[in-house]
Specification:
By secondary structure, this protein is an alpha/beta fold. The protein folds into two domains: 165 residues, Rossmann fold; 65 residues. Helix content is 32%, strand content 20%. It is built from seven helices and nine strands. The strands form two sheets. Strands 5-6-7-3-8-9 form a six-stranded mixed beta sheet, with helices on both faces. Strands 2-1-4 form a three-stranded antiparallel beta sheet, with helices on one face. A hairpin with a 4-residue loop joins strand 8 and strand 9.
Length: 292
Amino acid sequence: MSTAPAPASGAQAAPEAGAPAPARATPRSPLGPSFDSVTPVPAAAPAPAPAVRIDGVSKRFGSGPVVLEDVSLDIAPGEFVCLLGASGCGKSTLLNLIAGLTEPTSGRISVTADRPALMFQEPALLPWLTAAGNVELALRARGIGRAERRTEAERLLRVVNLAGQGGKRVHELSGGMRQRVALARSLAQDSSVLLMDEPFAALDAITRDVLHQELTRVWTEQRLSVVFVTHNVREAARLGQRVVLLGSRPGRVVREWRVDIPQPRTIESPGVSALAAEITRELHEEIRRHAQ
């Protein structure tokens, strides 16, 4: 009786006649588990670094009272954040800290942009220069040559809907037009972070409404991170993706609202009105607490 030879090392024995073929093993991915054990699970994209990070910041001027206390806040790239609070709560102080105009007493502030652009309540234009000349000042500070400065200033004036107005002197411009020139000058700094300190507070309601629309358009097109200081609750509800309420004595973050109302918005929008009413109630309560 003969004996079948053993299979060679590393080979598989042939199945007997009539026997089902052995099931083939499914290869497993070395990259990690997935719902089918085959397709690699894509790695989660890392969260982008904040455009502005405020970490435990406090501020006291000399031996005076504490103006800001333990403020922590992150502003994401491309986010529009409104800082709101009663007069004297430290909104402008916090903006100046972000801009690097003063240093915190304690805590740390980091900004991804080399130098944030800053726009004040007053346009602060030089009256002996034209609108284009005022915009060119910021371009000149960046070392841009004369011919390129002229072209870029004209482009930025078009961005803020002042095409053809570059040759006008400051006294020939309306209040709204002056603020647009100031905005163009801020954009000329070529920063991804724009800081705005109540830039529309001195304007009439109609002009402010128009500039709200313009700012929303520019923010969307330029993909800026905006920190906007205001004491106007409806303005904050209309413009911001997030509204941050600062308390007083000393200033600190007491509440935040994430605004899911799509842009463009109007002051009269029902969602804006409802949010403004809620924020106003919280603001009044905060003022009452500190009045006692």
